[in-house]
Amino acid sequence: MKHSTTFLRSHIPWLFLLFAVDGFAALLLWIADARAFPALAGAFFLATCFLFLTVCFVLVRHEKKKRQAFLDFLDSPDRYREQLLLDAVTADQREALRLLAKALRERQDDYAALATQLSDYEEYVESWAHETKTPLSLLTLLLDNHGEALPPAVRIRLDYIRSRMQESVDQMLFYARLKGTRADYLFEQLSLRACVEEVLEDYAPLLSEKQFRVECAFDDVMVCSDRRSLRFLLGQLVSNSIKYCGSSPALHFELRREDSADVLCVRDNGTGVKSCDMPYIFEKGFTGSLPENRRNATGMGLYLAKGIAHALNLTLAAASEWGDGFEMRVSFPIVETTDTLD
Questions:
Q1: 198-to-35, 43, 108, 194, 238 alpha-carbon distances in Å
Q2: DSSP 3-state of 60
Q3: Distances (CA, A) of 177 to 126, 136, 207, 307
Q4: How would you write the pLDDT of the chain (342 residues) with one tens digit per residue?
Q5: In Å, how far are 85, 104, 114, 236 from 108, measured between CA atoms?
Q6: Per DSSP, what are the bridge partners of residue 214?
Q7: Which of 99, 195, 207, 292 would be 212's cystine partner, CB 3.0–4.6 Å?
Q8: 332 CA to centre of own chain
Q9: Shortest CA distance to 8 belongs to which of 74, 53, 69, 73?
């Protein structure tokens, strides 16, 4: 309706022209026969209005048909819809529409080719990551069953390398998962403390390498989340603290109850983040002002953590003072559950 009104407004000058012609004809009629003019004036005016309304109806109907044909063509610019649109427009517009149709089909073909390439690339990355997990699993099995037979320094180093490789593979898989079209999250009631302890166990070699002092003393709560994704998110926060630690590193976990959320605070005493860098810490690839111990940073950890948090309906908030540690707060919405009796 709005489009039709706008279309009719564009034809108002023609309405004025029509009434001007009618007025001139009425003037000529009055000059020719002043006595017959009053009898013919009403019929003349009604005929003019009927003619104008008929023309408006035909124009609006044609415009709606042309608009619908154009929308159908944009939705699927095949040759059938192109021909329907060509039949609805004027001859001087057809050549431009043929060029537009050709360009749209070429872009559509390019897009389909790129989508296929992207899908193949995602499948390759996921396949490579899963294939890489096989030697990692064998290395883990070797360290678990025959670690005592290895020299302590070699065993610690192999465990460290295994943890780093596992973290990189997990990052790659979760990046592909975030960018993919498939979501396979399994939400369930989880023990938050158990998830934190599992993550600390996974990162034990890296924490031991840096001689971290870990404090994890909080009352356990149950949260509704996807176990694998939540462990990955918490792992990125721990990994971030390990990468940017200072002397005598410490990692502290604390749980706070707020009005509508349980907030897990993960705080370290590392180098922290400059205030000018804080607005960008969740940006992809952002590493900020890098001191010597952060040269190998990729800027992907917190970016992935933010993406996973969004998918899990969690909120991440950061606080830091340069040279005085870094704190990340993960807010879990409180879900009220009611028990029903049969």
A1: 105, 91, 47, 6, 12
A2: helix
A3: 9, 21, 27, 10
A4: 566 566 666 667 776 777 777 777 777 777 777 676 676 777 777 777 787 778 778 877 877 888 888 888 888 888 888 888 888 777 878 888 888 888 888 888 888 888 888 777 777 777 777 777 777 777 777 777 777 788 888 877 888 788 888 888 888 878 877 776 666 788 999 999 999 999 998 888 888 888 899 998 888 899 999 999 999 999 999 988 888 888 889 999 999 988 888 999 999 998 888 888 888 888 887 777 655 545 556 678 888 899 999 989 999 999 988 888 899 999 999 876 555 444
A5: 18, 6, 10, 39
A6: 251
A7: 207
A8: 21
A9: 53
Find out whether 129 and 173 touch, Cβ atoms under 8 Å: yes
Q: Which long-range contacts (CB under 8 A, 24 or more apart) does 167-170 make?
A: 167/235, 167/239, 169/129, 169/132, 169/133, 169/136, 170/232, 170/235
Give which of 213, 254, 235, 225 is closest to 302, Cα–Cα. Answer: 235
Specify whether the backbone of 131 is left (phi greater than 0), alpha (psi in -120 to 50) or beta: alpha
Q: How far apart are CA 297 and CA 271, in angstroms?
A: 14
**Rg from Cα positions in the chain:** 35
Which helix or strand (DSSP H or E) is residue 330 part of? strand 326-333
Q: Which domains are seen in the chain, by residue range?
A: 2-89 (no CATH), 187-333 (3.30.565.10)
SS3 annotation, 158-196: HHHHHHHHHHHHHHHHHHHHHHCCCCCCCEEEEEHHHHH
Give the pairing of strands 213-216 and 250-257. parallel
Number of neighbouring beta carbons within 10 Å of residue 127: 10
Separation of CA 301 from chain center = 17
Structure tokens belonging to residue 182 = 């498939």
Q: What is the pTM (predicted TM-score) of this model?
A: 0.63
First to last CA, the chain: 55
What are phi and psi for residue 287, nearest 5 degrees? -120, -10
Q: Which amino acid is at 193?
A: R
